[in-house]
């Protein structure tokens, strides 16, 4: 699509109020889904993050890596196993998770940001004692952990030195264990500890739909006080429940707003952050 110079100027002018609003503030992006697999989408995400950083927004990238973990498990002849939507993580699987997330995925994303002109620092939750966890007690998931303590100093130090922190959600236990942490959960907790202005969860769906089979029924904004009603009515169901719960928890802990966006849309982060249009479903603080 060809656009004129005037159209380019209009786009920049429309973005200016949003740049002024977010400049100097922190935004946490949970990166996952199709946008991690499709090379064009992956490049677009990194470009968006670099652009936000260049206009003075402090961006923290928390990433998953499910498809890469599954591929590696299959290479060693191990079938991936899930319990209630969470990856069952025995010791052998945990070794693969740590190797893939903290190694391959984390460093490839860091390198991609650097290759596109950004400054990135790859971290995992074990670095600097950032994420401390205990074994998830609600069911048998193996070495899946729930966060106990979060020390944001490695992240804030990276931001203070002009880096985009790229964080893999792996946590340390009290007795030398290593735990697999759900990336949405890690992103929500880190966003809260950073007092972030915004948390963005990238997914493979348009957002919260009133009718899950009709994308035209997108609910653009939800007050967190409405969440229980939406669950009772079956509008929030299935895999959307834990994502919404993470968003609610983040807002209750002080994050100004959270948005579930469609990572299949090219430059969805920029559309959400720097335009009046926005994408996805935004959750905001309760209005009593």
Helical content (DSSP H or I, runs of 4+): 25-40%
The number of helices is 9
The separation of the N and C termini measures 46 Å
User: What's the SSE pattern?
Assistant: HEHEHEEHEEEHEEEHEEHHEHE
Radius of gyration: 19 Å
Total strands: the figure is 14
Low-confidence stretches: none
Sheet/helix structural class: alpha/beta
The percentage of residues in β strands lies in: 15-25%
Average pLDDT for all residues: 91
Query: Quick one: biggest sheet?
Result: 8 strands, mixed
**Outline:** globular
Order of strands in the sheet with the most strands? Answer: 5-8-2-1-11-13-14-12
What topology emerges from the helices and strands here?
Blueprint: H1 5-22, E1 26-31, H2 39-54, E2 58-63, H3 66-75, E3 82-83, E4 86-87, H4 91-115, E5 120-124, E6 131-135, E7 145-150, H5 153-160, E8 164-168, E9 170-172, E10 178-180, H6 183-193, E11 198-203, E12 221-223, H7 227-232, H8 240-252, E13 257-262, H9 268-274, E14 281-284
Parallel strand pairs: 1-2, 1-11, 2-8, 5-8, 11-13, 12-14
Antiparallel strand pairs: 3-4, 6-7, 9-10, 13-14
Helix pairs in contact: 3-4, 6-8
Can you tag this structure with a few keywords?
alpha/beta; 8-stranded mixed beta sheet; two-stranded antiparallel ribbon; 14 strands; 22% strand
Q: Care to describe what's here?
A:
The chain is an alpha/beta fold and 288 residues long. Helix content is 40%, strand content 22%. It has helices at 5-22, 39-54, 66-75, 91-115, 153-160, 183-193, 227-232, 240-252, 268-274, and strands spanning 26-31, 58-63, 82-83, 86-87, 120-124, 131-135, 145-150, 164-168, 170-172, 178-180, 198-203, 221-223, 257-262, 281-284. The strands form four sheets. It has an eight-stranded mixed β-sheet with strand order 5-8-2-1-11-13-14-12, with helices on both faces. A two-stranded antiparallel sheet has the order 3-4. A two-stranded antiparallel ribbon has the order 6-7. A hairpin with a 2-residue loop joins strand 3 and strand 4. Helix 3 (66-75) crosses helix 4 (91-115). The chain starts with a helix and ends with a strand.
